[in-house]
Amino acid sequence: MKTKRVFPSELAYLIGIVVLAFGSAFMEKADFGMSMVVAPAYLIHLKVSEYLPFYSFGMSEYVLQAFVLVALGLVMRKFKKGYLFSFVTAVFYGIILDLSMKLVSFLPLSGLPGRFFYYLLGIFCCAVGISLLFHTYIAPEAYDLFVKELAAKTGKDINKIKTIYDICSCTVGLMLSFAFYGFGKFVGVKAGTIFCALINGWLISLCSKFFESRYSFEDKLPFRPFFTE
Fold first, then answer.
1. pLDDT one-digit tens code per residue, 120-153
2. Number of structural domains, the chain?
3. Domain around 80
4. SS3 for 205?
5. N or C end of the chain, less CB within 10 A?
6. Dist CA 24 CA 125 (whole Å)
7. Alpha carbon distance 34, 23 (integer Å)
8. Does pLDDT of 59 surpass 90?
9. Rounded to whole angstroms, how far apart are CA atoms 5 and 216?
């Protein structure tokens, strides 16, 4: 039997955040539609930045996630200390997201094939990033924390809960697109968003199976109790 290599759960957190941020940046560059999870924040960013230019995509992310954390506390009927760090994660992700958007903007774009490549790369990066965040005790972004906590509370498969959450987020994105730009124009939420919503849970499951077959996720720092209380 092949021995699994140790993958520090704290490293999974750091890599997961960075890869997820670049995944969103690649999807934005492709312009086939954002990931359904970030679509609402992206649309709010586009609208608010028309009046407040400093309101970046990353800033919109952690502002919206603050509301998601409040909703999570209401659903769970309690507020864990780890939830507070989820907001810290959201700010960290927002900073990395804004940086990745700037870096990706310098990459060449060769017509439709180039856009398609960046779209697929974005979906893959998002799935890998979320899968890694599911394998760490450190509080992930509010979106993923909501899924993780709800799956634990209900005893349901986390990937199925993720798919349901993605579809709901996609619906909210569509509503915001219609509200901001009317029914004749799709912004942020496009065909690529719908496709991503349908396959993202399955793709995350594949990534998780890949990691779990090769790695054993273990804590290297004694901070797990802080995030699980």
1. 999 999 999 989 988 888 887 888 788 888 888 8
2. 1
3. 5-228
4. helix
5. N
6. 8
7. 10
8. yes
9. 6
